[in-house]
Design goal:
The protein is mostly beta strands and 503 residues long. It contains three helices and 31 strands. It has a 27-stranded antiparallel beta sheet that branches. A two-stranded antiparallel ribbon has the order 13-14. Strands 24-25 form a two-stranded antiparallel sheet.
């Protein structure tokens, strides 16, 4: 039963959503996989998908690939169609096509009998991209579209020399990269225009990875009969990329296209805390009473802190002030686009994971930006299970600098939501079981999603009732009431499907 609300504006909600998954094994170690997800309208998904996380997910990816990995070499063939629906407005979607993509890569391998190692990454691909235009200062909108098939050839061999002295690890490396495109981007307005003029991007990359000796200490008198081990792993990486003098003219399809000049130092510190329980050994040591084996150590806490210092604050001229800039050096470090102007320091990233037992797991990842003196991203979660009770909660926060799209117009980028679920029992437990879940948007002050589901099972049968509430903008405001009656070893009937249950 559904109640969509009398004040909801009339919007065309029809569409199609097709999903298909398949896998096959072929001779000579080849493996083929097909994951098809076709969506004709984002409004259709928002309105009719009964799982909250899927209903608001704006990305659609269909791909099929054939791969083989053997003796350190990897061969891959890929066909992929990626779409990102920017809004519920019809046609407001970015579409990127890989058709096809042929890739070959290798792991680090000895160069003859020398101490050097070599590796190779190469790809030959056909690509295309289309997206709606951005309304400029003149008030006009020009859609962006590349040729139906843009050729891209990427070739990148590398050489490295791992050194180990007195516990210190040093790995200098050098690589060249040559990427040829059959089209290039002519900057014009907000996005630009794709022209049929080939362009060649060349880059030289050098890096030095320094790992000091591991610092560790064991505390035999730990907690609750367990010994503790604290380990500290520092690292320093210097990286320099030069030669990319045409960044503004490179079309964007994926992470291969955002390589820029950089001159930087990354420093990080990883701390780990382990616990190990020692078995009792009294009156053991004979055939009748053998000594028990020691339990494996458990990693209680992992905490990583890292930051980058950019010596080249303009990234070889690739940085455009007033816009969110995405480069390889930033995407490899954090998913948050923080570059809107020249700067030396990146945000400080913290990655904390806590797992003291099989009952409790928690984590908190955040990025703190010293330039604006605030958290730019935070993602925390906790899961706790004891007996028949399970509790889970998560909080996601994001605030990135606004991007100047048009004069005096800044696009906001702020997101803050949390979700909580509490469960007692299971769907098959005899007697009463129940769960409740809700998701709250702090920015809008709206309870976007809530649900309550309860079950009572006898030996012969069971009955389940559920209430759900969706509040997704003006597109979907809906109450749902569902039930299911189940007979043991026979089946059930009702309008509550198994894949949509809350527990």
């Amino acid at each position: 039963m559904r109640d969509r609300g009398v004040n909801t504006p009339r919007v065309s909600q029809g569409g199609e959503n097709v999903r298909l998954n398949g896998e096959a094994r072929f001779g000579y170690g080849f493996r083929g996989v097909a994951n098809v997800d076709y969506l004709s309208s984002f409004v259709f998904r928002v309105v009719f998908n009964e799982v909250f996380t899927q209903a608001v997910y704006s990305e659609v990816r269909s791909q099929g690939f054939l791969s083989n990995t053997s003796r350190g070499y990897s061969y891959n063939a890929l066909i992929e169609r990626y779409q990102n629906f920017e809004s519920t407005i019809k046609g407001d979607v970015v579409t990127i096509l890989h058709a096809p993509s042929l890739e070959f890569s290798s792991a680090d391998r000895h160069l003859g009998r020398s101490p050097f190692y070599w590796n190779l990454d190469t790809a030959f691909e056909g690509l295309s991209r289309s997206e709606p235009g951005v309304i400029g200062a003149s008030g006009t909108e020009t859609p962006f579209r590349t040729a139906p098939l843009v050729g891209r050839f990427d070739f990148s061999p590398g050489l490295s020399l791992p050194l180990h002295v007195a516990g210190w690890s040093l790995r200098p490396s050098f690589s060249v990269r040559d990427t040829l495109y059959s089209q290039q981007l002519i900057p014009s307005g907000v996005i630009g225009i794709a022209t049929n003029d080939p362009i060649n991007r060349r880059a030289l990359e050098t890096s030095v990875d320094l790992r000091p000796p591991l610092l560790e200490r064991i505390f035999n008198r730990g907690l609750f009969g367990r010994s503790l081990k604290h380990a500290v792993e520092p690292r320093v990486v210097y990286r320099r990329v030069s030669g990319v003098n045409n960044f503004a003219n490179i079309l964007r399809f994926d992470d291969r296209d955002v390589l820029s000049d950089t001159n930087e130092v990354e420093y990080a510190l990883v701390q780990r805390l382990y616990a190990k329980k020692h078995p009792k050994t009294e009156n053991c040591g004979s055939e009748l009473a053998p000594c028990p084996k020691a339990a494996p150590a458990r990693e209680l806490i992992t905490w990583e802190l890292a930051q980058k210092y950019f010596l080249d604050t303009n990234f070889g001229g690739a940085l455009v002030s007033g816009r969110r800039n995405v480069f390889t050096t930033t995407t490899d470090f954090t998913a948050i686009a923080f570059l809107t102007q020249p700067r030396h320091l990146s945000p400080l990233i913290s990655r904390l994971h806590i797992g003291p037992s099989s009952r409790l797991e928690a984590g908190w990842d955040f990025d703190y930006d010293f330039k604006i003196s605030r958290l730019s991203a935070s993602n925390a979660f906790v899961n706790y299970h004891i007996g028949q009770i399970t509790f889970g909660g998560g909080d996601a926060y994001l605030q990135t600098p606004g991007e100047v799209l048009v004069t005096n117009l800044v696009a906001p980028s702020r997101f803050h939501q949390f979700r909580v679920q509490m469960t007692y029992g299971t769907a098959l437990k005899r007697g009463f079981s129940g769960t409740t879940v809700f998701g709250y948007d702090v920015n809008t002050g709206i309870l976007q999603y809530s649900g309550v589901q309860s079950t009572y099972n006898w030996d012969c049968c069971g009955i389940t009732g559920e209430f759900r509430r969706f509040a997704l903008g003006t597109v979907r405001r809906e109450n749902q009431y569902r039930f299911q009656f189940t007979l043991a070893n026979i089946g059930g009937f009702g309008n509550l499907r198994r894949q949509e249950k809350l527990y």
